[in-house]
TrEMBL record:
A Pfam family the protein falls into: Pyridoxal_deC
GO cellular component labels: cytoplasm
Lineage: Bacteria, Bacillati, Actinomycetota, Actinomycetes, Streptosporangiales
Presence of the UniProt keyword Lyase in the record: yes
InterPro entries per UniProt: PyrdxlP-dep_de-COase (IPR002129), PyrdxlP-dep_Trfase (IPR015424), PyrdxlP-dep_Trfase_major (IPR015421)
Enzyme class per UniProt: lyase
The protein's required cofactors: pyridoxal 5'-phosphate
Origin superkingdom: Bacteria
Entry protein name: L-2,4-diaminobutyrate decarboxylase
Keyword Lyase: yes
Any GO BP annotation: carboxylic acid metabolic process
PANTHER family linked: CYSTEINE SULFINIC ACID DECARBOXYLASE (PTHR45677:SF8), GLUTAMATE DECARBOXYLASE-RELATED (PTHR45677)
Family as reported in the entry's similarity comment: Belongs to the group II decarboxylase family.
Enzyme Commission code(s) on record: 4.1.1.86
């Protein structure tokens, strides 16, 4: 059994150390990331010894945790400008603690009635926001599983007997090259193969060209996938035009809004999602712009029955009698964490307006970076940002090498992406602490480590 006194002491240490970690991260008082090789880091943390011998005490735990946190990546840091992973708010962290202690895998209602009910209500709220008041949904561990689940639902609608009879060879999925890689993964997992993906025409920035949608006569289209927003650029497809085109042809319209759906909470930016209500399915990741810790991704469908048809299963120890409020028949996962609690607590603390203000602030900071950098010598910005993602180049040199030099300094964490076949630097503004001072410092550092003429300085 738990030693309650030991748990309370260790939990107190964890809270103290995490509070100090977040505080110094938010202030930018330490490097944003560490890049120690795994072998060296394993020795520093004493991982093999702890695994073999055990015996950790609260005092030893404090020292271990300090080192563990110091060697990670600080998503609360103003210079964290890399991946589309939330700088999590503390209510979501509290939900993780609750789940870690209670461990109610609530895909089966009897295993976690409170957690399942919280998920139901969060999903009801999300469905209302995307315009599916009569729809259905489920939370999954990440957008990749969410996209796979949607593709299963679309397949069930196009070929109801595919679960038993297999996938016919004439199904196709329409998607732009900018679609998230999980879409093409899902297509192959479903047995269609990459040949089934028909690439949609795009403009020079990778957005679907709604004026050049293909002739689908003679094709058996399972789904069309649009982005809101594209992972690489943060730009949005024309959902209304594409959605109307799909409606006229009875084609399943899927909107991958993993990153961008949270803009529905910002009156200033909700217009970017105009037409999302025409979709048959939407995915929405809370662990991006709703500030939950990873992972919590929603699958939302216009017709509830489409999601129920995605899976067919038999297991006498789980499926018998009236399944009632179980969610297990809607998801790949059997054991599923209390994901709804993380979203609920962030909403309960900050409110819909507070989360919308956060989205607007991060979008505003990204736009500010564009304003500060566009007139600097050597910098090229291929588009005005629509979200909190910005691509840019400095000079004509190796942008990947420039990124490595910036990261080696420990001062900045950013990514890169190809746009039109050309490598660009890329930032994603996630941390509330990122401000003009950070942005100016990044622009200065880029100019310091790169050369407008193309070569990199030693």
């Amino acid at each position: 059994m738990w030693n309650i006194e030991e748990f309370v002491g260790a939990a107190g240490i964890a809270v103290e150390e995490l509070a100090a970690y977040v505080d110094e991260s938010q202030r930018g008082a330490v490097p944003v990331l560490a890049r120690r090789p795994p072998g060296e880091l394993a020795r520093l943390l004493g991982l093999r010894e702890w695994i073999a011998e055990g015996g950790m005490t609260p005092d030893a735990f404090r020292e271990f945790l300090r080192c563990f946190l110091r060697e990670g990546t600080r998503l609360h840091h103003p210079a964290y400008l890399a991946h589309q992973t939330a700088s999590p708010d503390f209510p979501a962290a509290l939900a993780d603690l609750v789940h870690g202690a209670t461990n109610n895998p609530m895909a089966i209602y009897e295993m976690g009635a409170a957690a399942a009910t919280a998920e139901f209500e969060v999903l009801r709220w999300m469905l209302g926001k995307v315009g599916f008041p009569e729809g259905g949904g489920v939370l999954t561990h990440g957008g990749s599983l969410a996209n796979l689940t949607v593709m299963l639902a679309a397949r069930a609608r196009a070929v109801p007997d595919a679960w038993d009879e297999g996938v016919p060879g004439d199904l196709v999925v329409l998607a732009p090259p900018s679609a998230h890689y999980s879409v093409s993964r899902a297509v192959s997992i479903l047995g269609l193969g990459q040949r089934a993906i028909v690439p949609l025409a795009t403009d020079e920035l990778g957005r679907i060209d709604a004026g050049r949608l293909p002739d689908v006569s003679g094709k058996r289209v399972m789904a069309l996938v649009a982005g809101a927003c594209a992972t690489g650029t943060g730009l949005h497809d024309d959902l209304r035009t594409i959605g109307q085109w799909c409606r006229e042809r009875d084609i399943w319209f899927h909107v991958d809004a993993a990153h961008g759906a949270s803009a529905l909470l910002s009156p200033e930016h909700s217009g970017l999602l105009d037409g999302i209500e025409l979709a048959d399915s939407v995915i929405w990741d809370a662990h991006k712009m709703l500030r939950t810790s990873a992972l919590a991704a929603a699958v939302l469908v216009r017709r509830e029955g489409d999601l129920d048809a995605a899976f067919q299963q038999e297991a006498s120890y789980l499926f018998y009698g009236d399944q009632g409020f179980d969610l297990i028949n809607r998801t790949v996962e059997c054991t599923k964490a209390e994901l709804g609690l993380k979203i609920f607590l962030n909403l309960a603390w900050r409110g819909e307006r507070g989360l919308g203000d956060y989205v607007a602030a991060q979008y505003g900071t990204a736009h500010r970076f564009w304003e500060l950098g566009r007139d600097r010598p050597g910098f090229v910005f291929p588009y005005e940002p629509e979200s909190n993602i910005v691509c840019f180049r400095y000079g004509t040199g190796d942008q990947a090498l420039l990124r490595e030099r910036l990261m080696d300094s420990g001062r900045f964490h950013l990514t890169s992406a190809e746009l039109g076949g050309v490598r660009h630097l890329r930032i994603t503004v996630m941390a509330p602490a990122t401000d003009d001072k950070t942005l100016e410092a990044l622009l200065d550092a880029v100019a310091e480590h790169g050369s407008p003429g193309g070569s990199m300085e030693a």
